[in-house]
Specification:
Helix content: 25-40%
Radius of gyration: 32 Å
Shape: elongated
Oligomer: single chain
Number of domains: 5
């Protein structure tokens, strides 16, 4: 089996640090950190219990953030010491009191209106080991598959584990000698001592341990021998990475390279385009099928469609091929978009049980590459696939985007017909109150066409109703549901502002679209003013010299004088 070519690509500037993980040139993970939006997961705090809620068996803890953080009763206990059955444990009101100081660690970032999620089970990650103060447990990463190596590492960890602490052996420790593990443990014990000292010295609420910055976390947690290269475009960060590797893994230093080419590093490796695609609702598959990904507060729904793919054999084979490709792409998209929580997948219906199992097996295999805990739960009675993925931080879309200020995050706007009807009602209410003879109103060009109507007839009826001369200017720069009164005055004053051309003018225009009522003619626009160019219906995208032969209040008519040889964006 061909070995996957894995790269880490780091883009650093004053606004943010971005880390991309590539597998065979394809973007599979993206991490972003901004100076003003530092992550808090992994940080340890000295907090004050602000509120205890017996009904929820939880407490809110003030750790110095904007909102109080949430601590559930089960997270007060150390999971490695949970010998007491849940029903026999003390309730939250007997464990914590309002005003009590407590050491906690953030395990989930704050989202929207929700505060951070906390645990009393503090852990300190190193390169090879995770120290668990107060625990009595030694574990080995499930991603180490060799049972022989797992047994060896467990024995080594147990032999060096100090009393009163637990250890977890990380994936990167595979093949590492005992002496290296001891060095990592010594560092973690010293770090724990510093945390305890700061806890005693600081007044609550206060942060007493802050996890590493993004680039250093990637080196500690992700960068291992099976990566072919680690590219970074900032010299200062490059030197920090080399300095850290001197301590944690000197053999990897030769794989770290300072990127100094003129082309931006994310452009060079096609990452910017991949990020843009990861923000889109629809994802095309190579076969011609596609995915539709919809995220809600409660869950994420992924729909699989055959699209353009019709196959060369029978329908069942076509569906199976599309679903298999979709399963692999879904695993990548979930990992890339960092989607957490419950996920429901609606694969194309399969009547053959063997095919259904094959798709499930493919999905299970594909999610193994994800470092975040992901479980495929199987098929529901309705034939949907259920899966869950641990939610630690905001997903990619939430981090890079914000709700649309126009639609309020709904993802939809009014149709031009409905928007036009609403705007017309507004104009009927507002215009009669104005003292001017005429007005110039700007609106989206699709709505403008409806307000004007065929031959300007609709606009004429509106003018009669409101008692004003109305000049309409269409524009792509204004929201489809909005309009603005640009100018008001006498008829001649408004006319001079509204009409950018006069009869006999020669000018260069770009044909934008065929005329809606006569496809032989083409439509150009000047400052939102429509110019109907005769005989130019098949010249969309071409730059043409035209002469204005007729001008009305709503449009102008022109004839072609000459045309350029290449399409243009227009003027």
């Amino acid at each position: 089996m061909k070995k996957t070519d894995k790269k880490i690509v780091v883009n650093f500037d004053h606004r943010d640090t971005r880390v991309a993980v590539l597998e065979d040139g394809s973007l599979v993970e993206l991490y972003v950190e901004r100076p003003l939006q530092q992550r808090v997961v992994g940080n340890i705090y000295k907090g004050i219990v602000a509120n205890v809620l017996p009904g929820m068996q939880a407490a809110f803890v003030d750790i110095g953030l904007e909102r109080n953080a949430f601590l559930y009763v089960d997270d007060v206990f150390l999971e490695w010491q949970e010998d007491t059955p849940p029903l026999n444990r003390n309730p939250i009101e007997k464990l914590l009191k309002v005003g009590e100081e407590i050491m906690v660690q953030v395990i989930k970032e704050p989202f929207g209106t929700k505060g951070a999620r906390l645990t009393g089970q503090v852990t300190l990650p190193g390169r090879y080991l995770v120290l668990v103060p107060g625990a009595d447990y030694v574990g080995v990463s499930r991603r180490i598959e060799s049972q022989t190596e797992r047994d060896r590492l467990r024995r080594e960890a147990m032999s060096i584990c100090p009393e009163g602490h637990g250890l977890i052996v990380r994936t990167v420790a595979e093949g590492v000698e005992t002496e290296v593990l001891k060095q990592d443990l010594q560092f973690l014990l010293q770090l724990w001592n510093r945390v305890q000292t700061r806890y005693q010295q600081k007044s609550a609420p206060a942060v007493i341990y802050q996890d590493l910055a993004l680039t250093c976390r990637i080196v500690r947690d992700l960068f291992v021998e099976d990566f072919s290269s680690f590219l970074i475009d900032n010299r200062s960060e490059y030197e920090k990475v080399l300095e850290m590797l001197d301590y944690v893994s000197p053999s990897l230093k030769s794989k770290v390279h300072l990127y100094q080419e003129e082309e931006p590093i994310f452009e060079k490796y096609g990452i910017e385009k991949e990020i843009q695609k990861a923000l889109e609702r629809q994802v095309w598959l190579k076969s011609g099928g596609y995915l539709v990904i919809d995220e809600t507060e409660a869950l994420t729904v992924i729909d699989v469609n055959t699209g353009r793919y019709i196959g060369r054999r029978n329908l069942a084979d076509t569906i199976l091929k599309t679903n298999l490709e979709a399963a692999r792409e879904i695993a990548r998209q979930i990992r890339l978009r960092d989607i957490g929580g419950m996920i429901i997948i609606d694969f194309i219906d399969m009547s053959i049980q063997e095919h259904r199992q094959k798709v499930l097996d493919t999905l299970n295999e594909a999610v193994k590459a994800d470092r975040t805990k992901t479980y495929v739960l199987g098929l529901t009675s309705l034939g949907l696939v259920e899966m869950t993925r641990k939610k630690v931080r905001q997903d990619l879309a939430a981090f890079l985007q914000q709700p649309c200020p126009y639609c309020g995050g709904v993802g939809r706007v009014l149709t031009p017909t409905v928007a036009g009807s609403r705007i017309e009602k507004e104009l009927k209410r507002i215009l009669p109150q104005l003292s001017s003879e005429a007005v110039l109103v700007e609106m989206h060009h699709e709505v403008a066409a409806l307000i004007i109507g065929a031959g300007g007839g609709h606009l004429k009826r509106l003018e009669e109703e409101v008692g004003k001369y109305i000049f309409i200017r269409g524009s792509d720069d204004i929201h489809l549901e909005k309009y603005r009164i640009v100018f008001q005055g006498s008829r001649e004053e408004v006319r001079s502002k509204a009409l950018p051309v006069s009869t006999g003018d020669r000018l260069t225009v770009t044909i934008e679209e065929p005329h809606a009522l006569n496809a032989q003619h083409g439509i150009a626009r000047l400052q939102g003013f429509v110019v109907n160019v005769e005989g130019a219906g098949e010249q969309v995208g071409r730059e043409m010299e035209v002469e204005i032969v007729e001008v009305s209040r709503t449009s102008a008519r022109a004839v072609v004088v000459s045309s350029g040889d290449s399409p243009s964006r227009g003027k």
